[in-house]
Design brief:
Number of domains: 1
Strand order of the largest sheet: 1-2
Shape: elongated
Structural class: alpha+beta
Length: 58
């Protein structure tokens, strides 16, 4: 039994970084829903999620 059994987590930015780290909540029993953008947005000055990043999220 995990501490998050019966809980649902919506994780935005799940392709990498902090969002990917939060996906570990599934190991504690939470049902998770993960979403992220798949590509660069011109007005964002830092690198965004790449197409393969979500595949590496647990």
């Amino acid at each position: 039994m995990g501490v998050l059994d019966g809980k649902v987590a919506l994780i935005t930015g799940g392709g990498r970084g902090q969002g990917r780290a939060h996906a570990a909540m599934s190991a504690e029993g939470a049902e998770i829903v993960i979403c992220d953008l798949d590509g660069q947005i011109d007005c964002i000055p830092y690198p965004m999620n790449s197409p393969g990043d979500m595949e590496r999220t647990p």
